[in-house]
Write a structure and sequence with these properties.
304 residues; alpha+beta; Rossmann fold; Tumour Suppressor Smad4; 2 domains; 4-stranded parallel beta sheet; 36% strand; nucleotide-binding
C-alpha cells in the first residue's frame, strides 16, 4: 500500500497544491493509496510509527518540507519492512537541493512508484541534557540556532509566508541577530582525540548535506553517505568583518576565508563557556553548554 503523509501548510500551502496534483495522477494511473494529512507538530512521526508497526512492505511518501521529513524519519521503526520516500514541498527544500531531488511533484512520484531500490543515507545524532535527537540536513550552535529560534517565534513569519516572502523573515532577523549576537568561547574534541580551542565564536554549523536556511551553502563538501559530518566554524573575527563574510555563504565562497574553519569528523563534543541555542534541522530544543554530535552511518534509507 502507498501511504501519503501530507503537510498541507508546507511552503505556504504548496503541500496541499502538490497533493492535489499527485492525487489526480495516482487516480489516473489506478494506484491504490491512502492519504494522511498532518494538523500539527508530531503528527508525521505518529503516523509513520503506526504504519511501520503493521510490519508490511508499504511505501510511506512524505509530501512537505524538511521539517516534515525530519519528523517522519524519526518515526521509522528499526528493521521496518516499510520504505520511506519524499516529495519536497517546503519553502527551503535544503534536503532536496542537497541530495539532487527534482522539485516537480509528479516527476518525484513517478520515480518513487517505479523504483525498487533504496538509497542509504547517514543521519546525524545529537546528545544534550537539554534535549537530544537527530538531523538529516544540519545542526548548529550559536548564532544560526538563535536565528532559527527567533524565526520560529516571529509573528511576521506566517504573514510573509502567505505572500511568498518568507525569506525576508530570515534576512531581517538574521541581521538583527548578528548585531545583538554575543560571541562565546568553545572547546572542541574531534573523534575523541583532537582538541581545539576557539574564542569569539559566532556559530558552529554541522552538516550532513551542503545547504541550510533555504539554499545557504555552508558546507559545499558535505556528502550524506560518506560516514562523516562536516563542520563550519566562524570565530576570531570582528562583527564588522562577519557581514561581508556571510554574503559569500550562498555560493559557498566563504571556505578558506580568515575566521572560517572547515573540519570533518565522525564525532564531535562541544563545550561552551555559556549555554548556547542549538538546533536540529531548524528545530530548537533550547540552550546547552555541552553538545555531542555523531554520525549514524546508513541511519536512513529512502526510496526513489
Amino acid at each position: 500500500m502507498y501511504y501519503f503523509i501530507v503537510n498541507p501548510n508546507a511552503g505556504s500551502r504548496k503541500g496541499m497544491r502538490f497533493w492535489e496534483e499527485i492525487k489526480k495522477y495516482l487516480m489516473e494511473e489506478g494506484i491504490d493509496f491512502r492519504e494522511m494529512l498532518t494538523r500539527g507538530q508530531g503528527d508525521a512521526e505518529r503516523y509513520v510509527r503506526r504504519i511501520t508497526r503493521r510490519h508490511c512492505p508499504d511505501v510511506i511518501t512524505v509530501v512537505g518540507g524538511d521539517g516534515t521529513l525530519h519528523e517522519a524519519a524519526s518515526g521509522m521503526e528499526k528493521g521496518a519492512e516499510a520504505k520511506l520516500a519524499f516529495v519536497p514541498a517546503g519553502s527551503g527544500n535544503d534536503f532536496a537541493r542537497g541530495i539532487g531531488y527534482s522539485i516537480d511533484p509528479i516527476e518525484r512520484v513517478r520515480s518513487i512508484v517505479s523504483s525498487c531500490s533504496v538509497r542509504p543515507l547517514d543521519v546525524g545524532d545529537l546528545q544534550s541534557k537539554e534535549g537530544s535527537g537527530s538531523f538529516l540536513v544540519s545542526s548548529g550552535i550559536g548564532y544560526d540556532a538563535r536565528v532559527c529560534h527567533m524565526v520560529n517565534h516571529a509573528k511576521s513569519k506566517k504573514f510573509l509566508n502567505r505572500l511568498h516572502l518568507g525569506k525576508l523573515t530570515y534576512l531581517e532577523i538574521g541581521l538583527r541577530g548578528l548585531l545583538s549576537a554575543k560571541l562565546f568561547s568553545m572547546r572542541l574534541i574531534l573523534d575523541g582525540a583532537r582538541e581545539q580551542l576557539f574564542s569569539d565564536v559566532l556559530f558552529v554549523s554541522i552538516h550532513n548535506l551542503p545547504y541550510e536556511g533555504g539554499g545557504l551553502k555552508f558546507s559545499p563538501g558535505a556528502v550524506p553517505d560518506d560516514g562523516f559530518l562536516n563542520l563550519c566554524i566562524v570565530a576570531g573575527i570582528s562583527k564588522r568583518k562577519m557581514i561581508p563574510l556571510l554574503t559569500k555563504v550562498p555560493a559557498g565562497k566563504h571556505e578558506g576565508c580568515p575566521g572560517v574553519y572547515s573540519l570533518r569528523c565522525r564525532k564531535a563534543e562541544f563545550y561552551m563557556d555559556e549555554p548556547q541555542y542549538y538546533h536540529m534541522d531548524g528545530e530548537v530544543p533550547g540552550q546547552s553548554s555541552h553538545v555531542t554530535i555523531s554520525v549514524n552511518t546508513r541511519g536512513l534509507e529512502l526510496l526513489g
